[in-house]
Write a structure and sequence with these properties.
The protein is of the alpha/beta class. The protein has a single domain, classed as Alanine racemase (TIM Barrel, Alpha-Beta Barrel). The protein is built from 9 helices and 8 strands. The structure holds pyridoxal-5'-phosphate. Pyridoxal-5'-phosphate binds next to strand 8 and helix 9.
């Protein structure tokens, strides 16, 4: 069995990102978040040595363990469901929360951010495909949610995130990603003063090219960079 090269994987993914951007006739950039859940520190360091700055984790305990070792080298993304009582452990160092999906979490993030005199950047997680197994707000609930969250001064809404259904059907994937893109456009048109819709976090190893073609500018790639996860 040959050893996988994280560096080669990253180069390949970056090429595929560039191609997808070209196909979509876009000129902006796509941020690659390396999803390092279950992966050992050595592999993350290898990724960072290939100039990857952003790492994503979905469990608070694992995130804080990795923060303790890697310190401020990477930018930390919380991409998984976040329990309110765990916010305090990550409030100081988190770069971006992708999974803001309820008011109690928003209030806790705002409170913890105030205590340490910072503001925390967040994406609203949207369940476009309405799968019952998935977290995230339904599309129709996002604008009322935003209008509540705007009152909180220490969290910044930066955009939206979704997880597509785990299917190979390109049509379903496109519809999901397009749904999030259209929602972003609808929110942007409302010109809320204290909010930006700059980030659209969508696309994973199996669907990131389609996501980019549909407007994603932040993709979350795990197995495509690190190989299979060991749970
Ligand atoms: C695990 C995970 C990913 C990465 O999945 P891959 O298929 O390994 O690329 C992306 N986003 C979220 C929210 C995840 O939990």
């Amino acid at each position: 069995m040959c050893k996988i090269s994280i560096k080669d994987n990253i180069v390949e993914i970056e090429n595929r990102i560039d191609q997808a951007i070209k196909r979509a006739d876009r000129e902006d950039k796509v941020t690659l978040v390396a999803v390092s859940k279950t992966q050992p520190i050595e592999k993350i360091i290898e990724a960072m040595n290939s100039d990857l700055l952003d790492i994503g984790e979905n469990k608070v305990q694992e995130l804080i363990d990795k923060m303790a070792i890697l310190n401020d080298r990477p930018r930390y993304h919380m991409i998984g469901h976040l329990q309110t009582n765990k916010v305090k452990y990550i409030a100081e160092r988190i770069h971006l929360i992708h999974s803001l999906d309820r008011m109690s979490l928003a209030a806790e993030l705002d409170k913890r951010a105030k205590v340490i005199n910072r503001s925390i950047d967040c994406l609203i997680q949207v369940n476009i495909s309405k799968e019952e197994t998935k977290f995230g707000l339904y599309k129709d609930d996002v604008i009322p949610f935003i209008e509540q969250v705007l009152a909180l001064s220490n969290i910044n809404i930066k955009g939206l995130m979704t997880i597509a259904p785990f299917v190979d059907d390109e049509k379903i994937l496109r519809e999901t990603f397009r749904g999030l893109y259209n929602l972003k456009e609808e929110i942007s048109r409302r010109n809320y003063k204290e909010l930006s819709m700059d980030i659209l976090s969508m696309g994973m190893t199996n669907d990131f090219e389609i996501a980019i073609e549909e407007g994603s500018n932040m993709i979350r790639v795990g197995t495509g960079i690190f190989g299979k996860r060991n749970y």
